[in-house]
Amino acid sequence: MVLSDTDIMARLKKGDLIIRDIDFDKQIGPSSVDLRLGNRFRMFKMSDHAMIDPQNYQDELIKKWNDKDTEVEECTYTRLYISEKPFIIHPGEFVLASLREFVSIPANLVGRLEGRSSLGRLGLMVHSTAGYVDPGFRGHLTLELANVGKLPVKLYPGMRICQLVFQKMTSPAAAPYGTKEGSKYQDEIGATQSRINIDEDISKLE
Question: Which of 100, 154, 172, 191 has the highest count of CB atoms within 10 angstroms of its CB?
Answer without folding.
Answer: 191
